[in-house]
Backbone:
């Protein structure tokens, strides 16, 4: 690859990352507002996923985008993707229902602690260097301080955020594997499968929890729901695109860094946020996450003398 091609690829990667950061920063607030007005997280999520799948399929029928046909070759791996995806987002919704936005964000900021180890075990990267270890310690210190100063401690809220944390780790690692190894015509195929397949289990979750009885109709709530569906489509596409360009740990850290904007917006429009001391600890977490340095891929020498990185020959 020539120098100009490398520069173009770097610019393209940066553009997708910035776009992902912008959409991600606002999606959390929109979801919080949707849950506040409609009181039904599973139904909201089902609307977001279903509308995205229908929109993608409709555009493919019109020939606007390229989409792979539904086949067994794609159904099996994307079924796992769907389960991980819906599990992560559902736990995300339940966390937002029972805890404030900052509680979710600080746990989100700590995910690189585990992901750097999982990257080493499963995705062929080195362990963190000294600078990164200091950043990880900063993440731990900030998280502990935040919990101590959290004025709205709710056991149920922390239960759901811990469940989300475990599901999220699997989601990050497997979806990175899927983005790198499942061959598709375009990124829209990933968007379609990851939104279409989760609709089935999510429908039964909503029925099983009788969420329809809690759904509160209002003009403002419906408008927020429509906005969340549009943003859900954008979020799905840009997240898959960004995930295919960087490592799982880097993808998680990018998401952490953009949450500062979420905090600013949350403090302006919401009355359920952390204390000043908690915000300070949260900023420490995000500061440490921002300066975390991604570990490089390991080089492995095969028996024939070729060098391999993450399973790919570089000779």
Residues:
């Amino acid at each position: 690859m020539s120098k100009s091609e490398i520069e173009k690829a770097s610019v393209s990667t940066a553009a997708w990352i910035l776009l992902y950061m912008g959409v991600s920063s606002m999606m959390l607030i929109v979801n919080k507002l949707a849950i506040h007005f409609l009181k039904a997280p599973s139904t909201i999520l089902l609307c977001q996923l279903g509308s995205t799948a229908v929109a993608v399929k409709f555009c493919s029928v019109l020939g606007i985008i390229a989409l792979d046909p539904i086949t067994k070759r794609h159904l099996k791996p994307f079924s796992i993707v769907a389960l991980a995806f819906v599990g992560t987002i559902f736990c995300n919704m339940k966390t937002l229902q029972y805890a404030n936005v900052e509680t979710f964000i600080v746990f989100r900021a700590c995910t690189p602690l585990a992901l750097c180890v999982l990257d080493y075990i499963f995705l062929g990267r080195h362990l963190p260097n000294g600078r990164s270890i200091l950043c990880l310690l900063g993440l731990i210190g900030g998280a502990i301080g935040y919990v101590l100063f959290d004025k709205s401690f709710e056991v149920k809220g922390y239960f759901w955020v811990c469940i989300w944390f475990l599901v999220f780790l699997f989601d990050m690692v497997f979806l990175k594997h899927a983005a790198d190894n499942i061959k598709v015509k375009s990124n829209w195929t990933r968007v379609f499968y990851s939104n279409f397949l989760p609709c089935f289990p999510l429908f039964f979750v909503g029925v099983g929890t009788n969420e329809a009885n809690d759904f509160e109709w209002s003009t403002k709530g419906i408008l927020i729901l429509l906005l969340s569906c549009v943003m859900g489509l954008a979020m799905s596409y840009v997240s898959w695109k960004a995930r295919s360009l960087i490592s799982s740990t880097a993808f998680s850290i990018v998401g952490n860094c953009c949450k500062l904007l979420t905090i600013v917006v949350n403090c302006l429009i919401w009355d359920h946020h952390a204390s000043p001391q908690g915000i300070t600890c949260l900023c420490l977490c995000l500061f440490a996450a921002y300066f975390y340095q991604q570990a490089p891929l390991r080089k492995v020498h095969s028996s024939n003398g070729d060098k391999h990185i993450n399973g790919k020959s570089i000779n």
Observations:
- The longest strand covers residues 299-301.
- Residues 91 and 237 are 21 Å apart (CA to CA).
- The radius of gyration is 20 Å.
